[in-house]
Amino acid sequence: EDKVVQSPLSLVVHEGDTVTLNCSYEVTNFRSLLWYKQEKKAPTFLFMLTSSGIEKKSGRLSSILDKKELFSILNITATQTGDSAVYLCAVSSLVQGAQKLVFGQGTRLTINP
Amino acid sequence: GAVVSQHPSRVICKSGTSVKIECRSLDFQATTMFWYRQFPKQSLMLMATSNEGSKATYEQGVEKDKFLINHASLTLSTLTVTSAHPEDSSFYICSASTLAGGPTPYEQYFGPGTRLTVT
Questions:
Q1: What span, in angstroms and rounded, lies between the C-alpha atoms of B43 and A107?
Q2: What's the pLDDT at A60?
Q3: What percent of chain B has pLDDT over 90?
Q4: Cβ pair A43:B44 closer than 8 A
Q5: By percentage, how much of chain B surpasses pLDDT 70?
Q6: A46/A36 Cα distance (integer angstroms)
Q7: B48 burial class (0-12, 13-18, 19+ CB within 10 angstroms)?
Q8: A-interface mutation test, from B7, B10, B43, B49, most A Cβ less than 10 A away
Q9: For residue A96, pLDDT beyond 50
C-alpha cells in the first residue's frame, strides 16, 4: 500500500527561525513528489520534484528530493507569521493512465511573532 | 490558467437529505477529476477518481451508493452525498487534471473546497 509520512506533525517556532519539514514515502510507480501549503481552504501548490538532488527554490522556500532514500525536505528560512499553515507532502503515481496523489498527514507549522 | 471552481463553498443540510457539490474546470478540459475528503486536522483522503463519460473508481471503504459521482462533461463533475448524516460533515475538495495538452498534462489542480455540515 502506498504510504507518505511527514514529520514533525506539529512545529512551533519564532519569527525569523529556519524550519525543515520532512517527508518520506513508499510508492509504486513513482512519478513526482509535491509540496502544498494549506491555510483555511484547499491546498496551494508549492513545488513539484521529479529528480534527485536538484533543489527547487521559491523565495524563502526550497525543497529537494532524494529518490534513493525515498525522502524529501522542505526548508523555510527567515520565517514569517504568514508562513503559518499546514504543509502537505503528496506523492504522485500513474495508475491506469491517471495521476493519483497520496498525501501525508501534514505538518502544522505555527510561527509566533 | 488552470482554474477549478467548486459550488457551493459552504452548505448546511439536515440529516437524511442529499447534497450536490459541483466541480468545474474553468479554462481547460479535465479528462480526469478527483474527489477528496478532509476531516478536521487530518490530511486529504482520495475518495474517487472519475474520467469523463465513464463510471468513477472508488477507493476502498468509500460507499459508491452514498457518494454518487457524475462526470458528464470535460469541465464538470458532481458529487452527491445521499442521505447525509452528521458523520459525513467534512471538507470536500475536488481536483482536475488533463491527459494531454495544457495547462500541464497529468498535474492536478485543486478547487477551493466545499465545507459540508450535516445537522
A1: 10
A2: 98
A3: 65
A4: yes
A5: 92
A6: 5
A7: buried
A8: B43
A9: yes
